Amino acid sequence: MNILGISCYYHDSAACLVKDGEVVAAVQEERFNRIKNSSDFPLNAINYCIQAGNISFNEIDYIGFYEKPYLKFSRVIIDHIKAFPYSYRNFLRTIPNWLQDRLSLPIYLKKELSYEGKVLFIKHHLAHAASSFLVSPFENAAILTVDGVGEMATLSCGIGSGNKIDIKKEIHYPDSLGLIYTAVTTYLGFAANSGEGKTMGLAGYGNPVYLDKFKEIVDIASDGSFRIDQSYFGFNKGKRMYSNKFVKTFGKPKSKNEEFNQRHYDIAASLQRLVEDTILAIAKNLYDETKVDKLCMAGGVSLNCVTNQRILEETPFKEIFIQPAAGDAGAALGVAMYIHNCMLDNPRSFVMNNAYMGPEYTEEQMKRSLLKAGLDFKRYENDELTKYIAAKIADNNTVGWFQGRLEFGPRALGNRSILGNPCNNEIKDVLNKKIKQREPFRPFAPVVHEDKANDYFEMYGNSPFMLLAPRVKEDMKSKVPAITHIDGTARVQTINRDSNPILWDLINEFGKITGVYLVINTSFNRQEPIVCSPDEAISCYNRTKMDYLVLGNFVVERGNEEAEK
User: Fold this and answer.
1) Which domains does the chain possess?
2) Does position 562 have pLDDT exceeding 70, yes or no?
């Protein structure tokens, strides 16, 4: 049984192939077309999934789409009518896309893939819920989905049991925590649907002094349900998502060339606290109603690791599972698993233990790319490689690290990463300014041995997908300053040897040298999607000031004349 899941047309397009209940491949379209957060139909991602599954298009039994287009279209039309005449430009910009492909997906699939089989559509939040619960290790769990908006739902609560999912409650558009977060993200000068993580990072530098003003905008009930005063926003009324009333309340939006100041920090902190407090109240109420101490989360807001950490620390839930592509990309996984488990009534058999579901490359392919680029390189065996690179990291060198299969989701989790020394606080400026070319307030994440994570962080469970932000222990802050955010937390990734043997060994060797069993892990990119292929890794290395490039077992060192070709 081969099931292809698809998400596309808004942001984070992706495809996923489920073969006899097992996830064979899952990847975002942006990794191929190199357009960040691409909304394009994921033709490249689909082609990869089919190749990874070693099947042809006529062997696909079902294709699943991550929402119900006609239901969403009805909401869009009504929204345009309500906002007229302010929505006129948006109407002219978006409606042709609906008529061209979004309302005729089966016809489009026949045209692009020559596929004439069954196409199934499920609700957006159901796809999100399935993407987390059905691949979780839990037999029973409460389910919380929070995002911008699906068809109508912006937040949903439910319960999963076996291969069944029951959505119990929903909050509907335009009342949306996700859209508020995005609106304020754009107010702070970041891009919608990609800059929300920057707002979360900015929040660590501020204090929630504007929280009372935000609570005048969002009316929160005791169970966490909420209503939003729409006069502060204009989600479909023009070029920006916030209104003049919002500007009058909080001041002028950040201009492009303006430096961040305390007001910006405090607005971000206030927004972050509002979202945290609201979701915590909802989570506590969800526990009271389900009495299940395991929670599965999905939707774009579930990528907010600070909120996730507070849920784990401050609610009765003892365990949380969030799959790494919690945003719309993961809904491609969700719809495929929902068809297999729920609609076809097959028992669950797959648990998502790692995110390595994308393309991988042979040693010969990597060597060919290095030769084509004219780079000097040397090959090391695994044990030699990990010792050599660990020593270089300990000596404050930065390393582009390219191994195995590409990660699914927005985080680099050790296969397409840039690694650095967490003990050297100055490495942050090197990475931000010389390599990543990003804002100086952006924190760097640690990847740490699972069995040693409690030595450094106040852990409440493992964090394999970098979606929790525990506090760094007081006696460790001076030892690992480069991964300690200004608020004393760190966005932690935990690994064990089974999940990523070569990275585990590298950290182990680094620990033998320094006594610290973790390294900096940031995504292998520079103002672009995370690198997918060896050619892209080489291009990124050449455009930055990384000291070393590791492709599999090959090492490139700037100025290295001891070449092996």
Assistant:
1) 2-127+324-343 (3.30.420.40), 172-321 (3.30.420.40), 363-557 (3.90.870.20)
2) no
